[in-house]
Write a structure and sequence with these properties.
This protein is mostly helical. Helix content is about 65%, strand content about 0%. It has 27 helices and 2 strands. The two termini are about 75 Å apart. About 35% of the residues are buried.
């Protein structure tokens, strides 16, 4: 049975002012790391503002969403594929692969986003619709940030083509401009459409614009100076936009909706050949110009601004604080690390930033009843602390079924985690024993190489045999092989079962020899000798002599030794008269059979010698 999804527990933590663009703050699978971020932020901000807030810090709820689980599963495959890229590949080839992998990650995000949107629209429950709507908003922000990081860091577009990439970035996340243009062009009379004059503001591409830009710019400025379009207000506004007039762009900022859309539009019409190193200046000024003087930048604004400033570590830090789990920062950081963009940033406690975030993300996955299997691969690709983390986390996986236990065991075996293998086997052996499943318990104890527990279970098998007269789990006992050497009692159990097989196959000579060796070699426990001697009775009563004279003498010696022990123990623990009568009857029958067999054996051996 799979573990049932449950509501995460709620804890409380101190944190600074909350991000307003995301629906939850620090809903992390690991309570320790958000606390670190909270303390760091509190210390850094308290000096300036002296103000703090109490916010809920909860475990990651996203892993319990069926749709978002697809995001975790699909991105896991991309992550594993990324780790296989060879280091010796030429830089150009690797760059193309990294860009392709980045787009794969984004396609997975977008696919989940679209599915969440469909569910949010189709559901009739307001709370569910709100929940999915919030998740869509978060994924939109994640995809926006990832796409920008892809343009600036991974693809590293140079001046000239940089603006083209930024135009595609804005167009992808501001699709209403393309939709308006398509709607206007497909109408019967485009010039009379209500949105006709709104469309040209952001619908130029770099390729068609760059060829004519300088000529256009001079020509547009001349037309404005000559008041050539003074009679048509719309044309004059378009000319001012083409000339890159900031006041005109700001007057129509409602058509742009975001400061980064305003930034790209401004660059397109005033500085189309912007260099990457100049972006931060334009980004900061556009943010200041676009926002109201009373407005405070939201966390998303700060993250994008840090990206335009090429401050990768600030982007990762702000995303870690603002987003609701480690998925985004872990995968983005891993990709950036493969691009050799994070080599200079190591943490003080030994692990680099990539490994630190992957460890936190994977630790969160281990709290889920099925996603924990994905986490194993993430730990495998954390060379410094991954193995240690896996050893600690694997022991916390609930072993609900034997199938799941075998799966965990296989993972541990493949990674030479011998202590964890023994621990899992002992747990399963104890559980099976409590449920009176002796065969399963013995199998697990053998895998654990636990001699003491194997002895205990072997004793239970022998007790059951004495009570019922038959063995359970014969297939297991018959195929013990070298495993029976794990303990003396297990060896006896295997050999005693072998005696029964020989007797069943009417191989009486071999059976007699094995039975005698179990007692004379002291393999059999003394408490079981009476059972063995009783098993010898049918062999002693055979028409053909099975036990030789020497063997019969040894059986007699064992019987007398057992009798003396029984007499000694009877003094300390008195038995009922019925039990004593049964034992005396057994002993008398054995003595009679042994005496008769000895006589027959002597006659037979003497006749042969003559």
């Amino acid at each position: 049975m799979e573990e049932v999804d449950v509501e995460p527990t709620v804890t409380v933590n101190v944190h600074t002012s909350p991000p307003r663009c995301f629906h939850s703050l620090l809903s992390s699978p690991s309570p320790l790391i958000p606390l670190c971020y909270a303390i760091c932020s509190f210390i850094s901000d308290a000096k300036g503002s002296g103000c703090s807030f109490i916010h809920e810090v909860r475990k990651d709820e996203d892993i319990y969403s069926p749709i978002l689980r697809k995001l975790f599963n699909e991105s896991h495959h991309i992550f594993v594929g990324l780790q296989t890229i060879r280091e010796d590949l030429p830089s150009k080839n690797k760059k193309n692969q990294f860009v392709s992998i980045s787009k794969n990650y984004r396609s997975v995000i977008r696919a989940c986003m679209e599915e969440l949107q469909q569910v949010a629209v189709s559901t009739k429950e307001a709370a569910v619709a709100t929940q999915y709507g919030n998740q869509v908003s978060i994924l939109l922000a994640i995809e926006l940030i990832w796409n920008l990081c892809e343009v600036l860091f991974i693809d590293a577009a140079p001046a000239g083509s940089l603006l083209l990439h930024l135009l595609d970035w804005v167009r992808l996340h501001k699709a209403d401009v393309d939709e308006k243009a398509r709607e206007v062009l497909q109408s019967e009379s485009p010039a009379e459409h209500r949105d006709y004059w709104d469309v040209p503001g952001g619908n130029q591409t770099l390729t068609e614009f760059d060829v004519k830009w300088r000529h256009w710019h001079d020509e547009v400025n001349r037309c404005l100076q000559d008041n050539s379009f003074a009679s048509n207000r719309h044309l004059e506004i378009i000319c001012k936009i083409l000339a890159g007039d900031e006041d005109t762009l700001l007057e129509h900022k409602e058509l742009l909706s975001t400061w980064y859309h305003f930034l790209v539009t401004r660059l397109l019409f005033s500085h189309p050949t912007v260099k990457p190193t100049e972006l931060h200046y334009y980004a900061q000024s556009c943010l200041t110009m676009f926002l109201d003087s009373r407005s405070v930048p939201e966390p998303l604004d700060n993250i994008l601004l840090a990206a335009f400033e090429f401050d990768i570590h600030q982007v990762i830090k702000d995303c870690s604080i603002a987003l609701n789990n480690w998925w985004f920062v872990a995968h983005l950081t891993d990709l950036l690390d493969h691009c050799k963009l994070l080599q200079s940033h190591n943490l003080h406690f030994g692990s680099n930033l990539r490994e630190f975030l992957l460890l936190e993300y994977a630790s969160g996955l281990f709290t889920h009843h099925s996603l924990w299997q994905l986490a194993v691969d993430y730990f495998d690709h954390c060379p410094e602390f991954g193995h240690v983390y896996l050893e600690l986390q694997i022991e916390r996986v609930p072993l609900d079924t034997e199938r799941k236990a075998l799966k965990v065991l296989r993972i541990c075996d493949q990674r030479q985690m011998s202590e964890q293998v023994r621990s899992i086997c002992k747990i399963m052996a104890m559980r099976a024993l409590r449920n009176n499943r002796l065969g399963s318990a013995l199998s697990w104890s053998i895998r654990a190489k636990d001699a003491a527990f194997a002895t205990l279970i072997s004793e239970r098998f022998l007790q059951d045999y004495c009570t019922r007269g038959t063995f359970s789990d014969l297939d297991l006992i018959d195929n013990l092989g070298p495993a029976m050497l794990l303990s003396d009692r297990l060896t006896f159990l295997g050999k005693y079962r072998e005696f029964h097989k020989l007797y069943g196959e009417k191989r009486f000579g071999e059976a007699a020899k094995l039975l005698l060796s179990l007692m004379t070699a002291k393999i059999a426990p003394r408490s079981f000798w009476m059972t063995l001697l009783t098993d010898a009775l049918p062999l002693l009563e055979q028409k053909e002599v099975i036990f030789s004279a020497d063997q019969t003498h040894e059986l007699m010696f064992c019987l007398e030794e057992l009798t003396s022990c029984l007499n000694a123990s009877a003094l300390g623990s008195p038995k009922t008269s019925q039990d004593e009568d049964i034992e005396l009857t057994k002993v008398e029958l054995l003595r009679l059979s042994l005496a008769r067999n000895l006589a027959m054996a002597i006659i037979k051996e003497g006749t042969v010698e003559a």
